Amino acid sequence: MKQPVEQFSLRALNGREIEISKFDQVPYQESYEAMASFAKLRSEQDHDQIWLLQHPPVYTQGTACNLNTLLPSDIALVKTDRGGQITYHGPGQIVMYPMLALKQYSIGVKALVSKLEQSMIDTLFDLGIEARRRDDAPGVYVGGSKIGALGLRIRKGTSYHGLSLNVNMDLSPFNNIDPCGYQGLKVTNIVDHSPEKVDVNDVANTLLKKFISSL
Fold this sequence. Notes:
alpha/beta, BirA Bifunctional Protein, domain 2, 11 strands, 3 helices, 8-stranded mixed β-sheet
């Protein structure tokens, strides 16, 4: 895994220290292998981790993915061990990977999903954007369009993978798939709904603060 451009620690409400690493663009396969290895090999002395980054263009396939929905494309496809279907990552999209020992926060997978979704909803609220969950389709939505997605895996009690939030990205690669397995699902960006200029790093910082404050 490449070196982060910024690294620091924050404490959750329970006092547990979390190491934060911010990266520039990281190839998906590289970050996937690194976080899976961390979850598999971590010791009790290892601090929890949260990574914030962006990926070069890539489609990622979850364990429930049906590739019949993928149209021909020059964009790479990576098969992963996260839950869910197929999605797209690219520049202009914030990705946050929380690698947390869930028992230390007295939460399970459903609670973590809820906290990740709420952190996106609260971040968007601060930008004057009303967002919500949907019972029939996990993630975060503005109107009828998806703006935030998530998928997780738990190994030896540690979470990995995480969420993606569309800030200012090229959405056209989503046309080659049924996003997250839902035919005809529209996607959108923060910049399409915010009257103010939006900075990707500022959104990442707000997202991180909202999530940490929920732990």
